[in-house]
Design a protein that fits this description.
Largest sheet: 6 strands, mixed
Structural class: alpha+beta
Strand order of the largest sheet: 8-7-6-3-2-11
Strand content: 15-25%
Order of helices and strands: HHEEEHHEEHEEEHEEEHH
Radius of gyration: 28 Å
Distance between the termini: 82 Å
Helix content: 10-25%
């Protein structure tokens, strides 16, 4: 009776499944970071589902040789459960069956998803931008997950179908994957937009706490070690010394174990 409330509290406290956001907006460290943090990005869904969407959208970025800026965004949901406006919920039993083993194991402890990936639910998406001469970002395309966890390319028209000024990614599934396509204005049941102060560089401690090196794949634009704030693997041990080279025989001198014709001599074994 005493131990029973412990796992219940651990899985029902929504606050523990979202990253803690320190007050105040950190200063941008570069022109690219400043442009990214000014560029509003929205997250929404065409279906109602369980889980509270976090207050901050964390990002990491990389720039390729062509000048394209890839920004990986991490959206945090408090939980991932099949309760909402979907067929799993309306048919009741399938939702209970999934919930028993996926998120809440027998409703008393963390399920498979929590054991495999960690607390909460983190969805990642990537938007590729070009920076104009005036410092503004132009959307090129994006990448996100479908409901089956396969990646889908989001064209510029997909990202700007809800609003022309603010790219929007959205889900069509209870499990929050953000690779939805084909929706228009007014079709989302919720939409949250992030702007200056709510789009922040990903801290390594948050990446480690939520194990972002093994989830939210479309947002990983840097190696896992860099994502976690770890140095790139290097050769720590001193290089091995090459074995000393033996003096090679002169061209006119046959090697040891050879006759004067240079042929190898085989030992004769007496039986």
């Amino acid at each position: 009776m005493i131990a029973l409330p412990v796992p219940l509290l651990a899985i029902s406290a929504q606050g523990s499944s979202l990253p803690r956001v320190e007050p105040g907006a950190p200063g941008a460290t570069s022109e690219i970071d400043a442009a990214i943090e000014r560029q509003a990005v929205c997250v929404g869904s065409t279906v109602a589902s369980a889980g509270e969407l976090g207050d901050v959208l964390y990002y990491r970025t990389s720039t390729d040789e062509h000048g394209d800026i890839s920004v990986g965004y991490f959206a945090f949901f408090s939980e991932e459960r099949p309760w909402g406006n979907n067929w799993l919920t309306w048919t009741v039993l399938p939702a209970i069956a999934v919930d028993l083993v996926y998120t809440h194991s027998l409703f008393l402890g963390p399920g498979v998803q929590r054991f495999a990936y960690g607390k909460g639910d983190v969805e990642g998406f990537r938007i590729v931008y070009r920076m104009a001469e005036d410092g503004r970002l132009t959307v090129e395309h994006g990448v996100a997950d479908r409901g089956d966890h396969s990646e889908v390319r989001l064209e510029r028209a997909d990202l700007l179908s809800i609003e022309a000024e603010r790219p929007t990614v959205y889900s069509r599934w209870w499990s929050h994957q953000l690779g939805g396509q084909g929706a228009g204005p007014g079709e989302l049941v919720y939409r949250r937009c992030y702007g200056a102060g709510a789009i922040r560089p990903l801290p390594p401690d948050v990446a480690l706490d939520f194990r972002l090196d093994r989830r939210a794949g479309p947002a990983r634009v840097v190696p896992a070690a860099a994502l976690l704030g770890q140095p790139a693997p290097t050769e720590l041990a001193s290089p091995r010394l090459a074995p000393p080279q033996l003096a090679s025989p002169r061209k006119d001198e046959p090697p040891r174990g050879a006759d004067d014709q240079g042929r190898a001599l085989r030992p004769i074994v007496a039986l």
